Amino acid sequence: MALEPPTPTVDAGDAVVGRWVLGLIRACHFQPTLAVTAMTTGLAVLAGRGALGCIAVAVAVLAGQLSTGWSNDWFDASRDIATGRMDKPIVSGAVSMGMVRAAACTALVAAVPLSLLSGWRAAVVHLVAIASAWAYNLGIKATVASPLPYAISFGLLPAFVTLGLPGYPWPRPAIMLATALLGIGAHFINTLADREDDARSGIAGLPQRMTARDALLTGVVLMTSCAVVIWMLGGSARGVQSALLAASLAAAAMVVFTTLRSKPRAAWSWTLVTVVTCLVMFAVSRPSLVAG
User: Fold this and answer.
1) Quick one: residue 264, left, alpha or beta (phi over 0 = left, psi -120 to 50 = alpha)?
2) What CA–CA distance (Å, rounded) separates 128 from 92?
3) Are 124 and 197 members of one domain?
4) 47 with 108, same domain?
5) CA-CA-CA-CA torsion for 9, 10, 13, 17, nearest 10 degrees?
6) Where are the alpha helices (DSSP H) in the chain?
C-alpha cells in the first residue's frame, strides 16, 4: 500500500501572528504614518542631511508616527467599542487593546534614542512634536483647540530636519508655516469620514463644531495655502512649479468632489495626493530650507 504525502496544513499559530501583524498595521493609521515619514525624509534629502542623516530622520519619524497612530486607537478603544466601529482592528478582534498599548509605548520609547541620532537639539524638537500628537490623542481632539497639536507637530518637522545639520540652523519660517498649514488642513479633511461616529462618542473638535461643508472648505483652503506658500518660496524651474501648483489645486478640487459624492475615504486619498504634490514642488524648486 503506497503512502500518501501528508496534506499541507496551515499552522494556527502562524495564522494568529499574521492576523496580529495586519491588525497592528491597520491600527497604526498606515497611510498617514507612511505619508508623514516620507515627507520628512524627503525634506531631509533636500536639506542635504546625507545618507545616514536621512536614515536617522526616517526611523525617528517612523517611530513617532507609529506611537501616535497606535496610541490613537488605544485611547479611543472604549469609544470605538461603544459605537460599534468594526472598521477598527481592536473592535473587530484583529488585535487586542493590550497589544496596541504595548506597541504604542514601545514605539514611543524607541523614538527617544532614534531622535537623538540627529543631536539633542533636533531630538528635543521632535519629542515636543510627538508629545503634541499624544496630547491630541489624550483629549485635545475633543476640544475647540484640536487643530493646535497639528500646527505644532507638523510645523516642527522641518526644524527636526535642519537642527541636525552642521551649525544647527532653524528652518525658514515660511517652511514651518507651510507644513503647519498642511497638517491643519489634513486634520479638517480627516474628520469628515468619522463625523457621525465622533458625534455618538462625544468627540467635538473644531472641525466637528462646524458644518461638514465649512470643515471641508476650511481644510481645502489650508492645504492649497500650503501649496501657494511653497510656490512663493521661488527657486528654480518656475514653469514646472506652476504646473505642480495647478496639479495640487486639482487634487484639492477632487477632495471637494469626492466628499460631496459621499466618498470621504477617497477624499482622504486625494488629500495625500496633495501632500505628495507639495513635496514634489518643493523638490523641483529646491529653495533653501534654512533661515538666513
Assistant:
1) alpha
2) 33
3) no
4) yes
5) 170
6) 12-27, 30-47, 50-82, 89-92, 97-116, 120-138, 147-162, 173-190, 195-201, 206-209, 212-232, 238-260, 264-285
**Among all chains, which residue has been given the C-alpha cell 496633495?**
274
**Confidence grade of residue 139 (pLDDT, cut at 50, 70, 90):** very high
pTM score? 0.88
Same domain membership, residue 102 and residue 34: yes
Span 182-207, pLDDT tens digits: 999 989 988 887 788 788 878 889 99
Domain tally for the chain? Answer: 2
Q: Return the axis-axis angle of helices 212-232 and 264-285, rounded to nearest 10°.
A: 10
Three-state secondary structure of 106-127: HHHHHHHHHHHCCCHHHHHHHH
53: its cell numbers: 542623516
Average pLDDT, the chain: 88
Instruction: Please report which confidence band the pLDDT of residue 1 belongs to, taking 50, 70 and 90 as the band edges.
Output: very low
Q: Where is the domain boundary, 95, 127, 143?
A: 143
Contact 198, 143 (CB under 8 A): no
Q: Is residue 131 part of a domain?
A: yes
* Residue 269, domain extent: 172-292
Task: Tell me the percentage of the chain whose pLDDT exceeds 70.
Answer: 93
Mean pLDDT confidence for 151-168: 96
Q: Are residues 128 and 79 in the same domain?
A: yes
